[in-house]
Each structure stands twice: as C-alpha cells, then as structure tokens.
From TrEMBL:
InterPro entries documented for this protein: CheY-like_superfamily, LytR-like, LytTR_DNA-bd_dom, Sig_transdc_resp-reg_receiver
GO MF terms held by the record: DNA binding
Domain Response regulatory positions: 7-119
Keywords: DNA-binding, Phosphoprotein
Ranges for domain HTH LytTR-type: 149-254
Positions carrying 4-aspartylphosphate: 59
Tree of life domain: Bacteria
Name of the featured protein: LytTR family DNA-binding domain-containing protein
One Pfam assignment: LytTR
Length: 254
C-alpha cells in the first residue's frame, strides 16, 4: 500500500448511498481520504478534473451521465471502484487490477477485500485499457428497456418519454432531441444513444437517429438514399445517408 491514504471521491445520485459509503470508509482512514462527493455524472466530471482524486467510488446508474459515460469524458481516469445495485453489470474485468466491483448494499467485509487489493497492485491501468473494459461491458451487458431520456435544463433534470421523441440530430459536438413540443440539447453522443435506445429507433444518417413509429412516409431518392418525412408538426424531412441504405431497406421490408 502506498504511504499516504488515497484521495477519494464518492459519486452516487442517492444521498443515503453516499452517506453509507462515507461511514464505511471511516473504518479505513489509512487507506482512504475522502475529498468530496458528487451527486451526478456531470458534477463528477467537474470535480474529478478539479480535485484529481486517486480513487473514485462510482455508481453506474445515474441520471444525466451514467458511470460509463462519465469515464468516457475523462482524459485521465483514476482508480475506479464501481458500485451498483444491478448485478447484471458484473464482469470479470471489473475484478482485476485497478478496477473493482461492489454490489449494493455495500458491506464492510467486501470493502475490506478492496483495501487488500489496493495494497497489492502497483500500477493503475491506462485510460485506454479501462475504455476497452467499457467496450466489453457495452457488448455483453443485459439489455434494459430504456423508456425516457434525461436532459439538463438549468439546474433541473427533465425526463422526456421516448415515445414522444421524433428524432435525435447531431450538429458538430452537440446532439439535440426533438419532440412535437420542444427540443433540448443533451449530453450523450449519437453513438452512445445507439447502444441504448430500443428497437423503435433507427440511425438513418451519421447525424440522425429517428423514431420509426413517428414516420409518415419514405420516398426513394438518388444514390441509394431515401427522403423520410416525420409525422410531427413540422413534417420534418430527413435525407438518409448512403451507408444506411441496407438497414433502412430491412426496416421497410424491401
């Protein structure tokens, strides 16, 4: 174990979970020195960049940014100890080297194993290696039905029902979610959304994912493309990308 305690950040959207972990960590003052807490992924990115903690205890399921999306935004990833109530996230990769995995509710005996692991390892995994673990997670995790999208508006988090979403559109580094009533900028990329959205959504262009249930009509266009009209107030017309020709044909059964 290193001579000084690991500077530590607790990241969880549930106050009771943060309080419980804080109390458990008090049993190991020579191992952990808690710097601060973060109540969501967006706040956590700011505090990690500011405080540069050695270790983060990271909840996976959080509004705004989940634990994996948070890590994708970091240039330098600290030692990660995942905490979650969902056992389908368990992967062998989380139990090796600098990554550990704790199932909620956290237990003192299990945290003791984490302390012992920290005393044995010498070098943290590289950010690239951790990201490869995240990729493995995305390919293996049990699919969960996503029914809403979280957007940030000022200091509030809004939950938009997916069946009201007509389409997502990327413009440079931003993504906008559109409904009949309004549109919002969101924190997730189209690639991240594509991994999680239910089968009602289809990517038809590198910059557009749309809701198949809210399509009015589809017309053939030149160069193996299609013009898709959405059944919304604006009757939005979207021209598909050529590379998406096959999946659009499969969707339409032609």
């Amino acid at each position: 174990m290193k001579n000084q305690a690991y500077t530590t950040l607790i990241i969880d959207d549930e106050p009771p979970a943060r309080a419980r972990l804080q109390k458990l960590l008090e049993h190991f003052p020579e191992t952990f020195r808690v710097l601060d807490e973060a109540k969501n992924g967006i706040e956590a990115v700011e505090k990690i960049n500011q405080l540069q903690p050695d270790v983060i205890f990271l909840d996976i399921e959080m509004p705004g940014l989940n634990g994996f999306e948070l890590l994708e935004r970091l240039d330098k990833i600290p030692i990660v100890i995942f905490c979650t109530a969902f056992d389908q996230y368990s992967l062998k990769a989380f139990e090796t080297n600098s990554i550990d995995y704790l199932l909620k509710p956290l237990r003192l005996e299990r945290l003791q194993q984490t302390v012992e692991k920290l005393s044995r390892f010498k070098n943290n995994l590289s950010s690239a290696t951790i990201r490869s673990v995240l990729k493995e997670f995305y390919s293996q995790k049990e699919e969960k039905k996503m029914t809403s999208i979280t957007v940030k508006k000022g200091d509030k988090l809004l939950f938009i029902k997916l069946d009201e979403v007509t389409h997502f559109e990327a413009d440079e580094k931003y993504v906008t979610v559109y409904t009949n009533k309004e549109n919002h900028l969101i924190e997730q990329s189209l690639s991240q959304l594509e991994l999680k959205l239910p089968q009602e959504f289809i990517r038809v262009h590198r910059a557009v994912i749309l809701n198949k249930n809210l399509v009015l009509d589809v017309q053939k266009y030149f160069n193996s493309r299609f013009v898709i009209t959405l059944n919304n107030n604006r009757k939005t017309r979207i021209t598909s990308g050529r590379s998406y020709n096959l999946q659009i044909k499969n969707w339409m059964g032609i």
